[in-house]
Amino acid sequence: MLKKTALATLAAAALVPLSQAQAADYVIDTEGQHAFVQFKISHLGFSYILGSFETFEGGFSYDPENPEASSVEMEVQVDSLNTNHAERDRHILSDDFLGADGFPTATFVSTGFEPSGEGEGVLSGELTLKGETQAIEMPVTLLGEGDDPWGNYRAGFEGSTTLTLGDYGIDMSAFPEAMHELELYVTFEGIRQ
Amino acid sequence: MWRNHRSGWGWITIALHWISAVAIIGLFVLGWWMVDLGYYDAWYNLAPWWHRSLGMLVLGLTLARLVWRLVQPAPRVPGKRLERLGAHLGHIGLYGLMLAVMVSGYLISTAKGRGIDVFGWFEVPALISGLPDQASIAGSVHWYSAVALMSLAGLHALAALKHHYLDRHDVLRRMLVARSH
């Protein structure tokens, strides 16, 4: 239900600002789940905790001839967090960190794309997490595109960026400096519509 | 004509029986074929999508069929006492195996909490997920119960033919044509 409405909104939103460009619209392949939203954060400076958000959806618009016009939107279900440890997941979702009850979704809406070379560039946009919206930049790379064996056309990307948790109202002051930031990594394939 | 009668089955029962027969044999063949498809085969994603969608529809149909079977009268069963008992147990076995195959299939796809999309029309939610090793265990149950179901269904067909040609009973005819009295 949510998926349908979100996709409809997405499709409608994608049509309006980009109708003048011949950009193709893609839906992120969460159905075949060739899409991942992961993070990596220090554990007390000793090692890393790796985690993943398993439920999300989104789409993007991309035209290799006119990469500046690219745009992306994603919506992540915060409570789909998985760090391979149920009790830790519960703690991270609590008000101590992500406050998933009050802020069940995190969203990213791009505001621009600056190509820096063949198949790469810097995506800028607004990330909303725990109700706080911040402008972020994320270097992204086109990994590949082409016809898949099942009759669709796919394009795949990856990107990562560093987030300061304090910017999103997540108080990490009780933890060492190394834990105040995390690395967000996103990779997905989109299916051209 | 629509409802069952002591002398024969109604059209609803007959339709449910034959639609189930065709769909379930089709699902078995489709399932058998699709698991060996190569990753680059054009049907690699499409065949399981058909299998899941059809399977969920047949599961719904089977639940409706069971309700209909329980609320409607059943025609008289011919034959000796032991034969009647065997037939009864065989039919219970068929219903049980149908449910086992379809429920286990459902549990494979929903093992990680994702619902099953049915032909893009609606989604069957994942009610049970995250059991230890759920997809693998449900997968084994799905395969063995499907083979058992096909075997028992084969026996069921042979028994129907035996009643028709050797015993001259009307059990096969009454599953083909509804009786009004």
Q: Oligomerization state of this entry?
A: heterodimer
What is the third-level CATH name, the topology of chain A? Lipocalin
Pair with the biggest interface: A-B, 6 and 9 residues
CATH homologous group name of chain A: Lipid/polyisoprenoid-binding, YceI-like
Tell me the major beta sheet of chain A: 8 strands, antiparallel, barrel
| Poorly predicted regions of chain A | 15-21
What general outline of chain A do the C-alpha atoms trace? globular
Number of domains of chain B: 1
CATH class of chain A: Mainly Beta
Distance between the termini of chain B: 9 Å
Order of helices and strands of chain A: HEEEEEEHEEEEE
Largest sheet of chain B: 2 strands, antiparallel
Mind explaining what this structure looks like?
- The complex is a heterodimer of chains A (193) and B (181).
- Chain A is mainly beta and 193 residues long.
- Chain A has one domain: Lipid/polyisoprenoid-binding, YceI-like (Lipocalin, Beta Barrel).
- Helix content of chain A is 13%, strand content 52%.
- Chain A contains two helices and eleven strands.
- The longest helix of chain A is centred in the N-terminal third of the chain and has 17 residues, at 2-18.
- The two termini of chain A are 20 Å apart.
- Chain B has one domain.
- Helices cover 64% and strands 3% of the residues of chain B.
- Chain B has helices at 11-34, 46-71, 81-109, 134-165, 171-174; strands spanning 116-118, 122-124.
- Chain B has a two-stranded antiparallel sheet.
- In chain B, helix 2 packs across helix 3.
- At the A-B interface, loops of A face loops of B.
- Chain A: InterPro entries: Lipid/polyisoprenoid-bd_YceI, TTHA0802/YceI-like_sf.
- Chain A: It holds the Pfam family YceI.
- Chain A: Residues 25-191 form the Lipid/polyisoprenoid-binding YceI-like domain.
- Chain A: Residues 1-23 form the signal peptide.
- Chain A: This is UPF0312 protein.
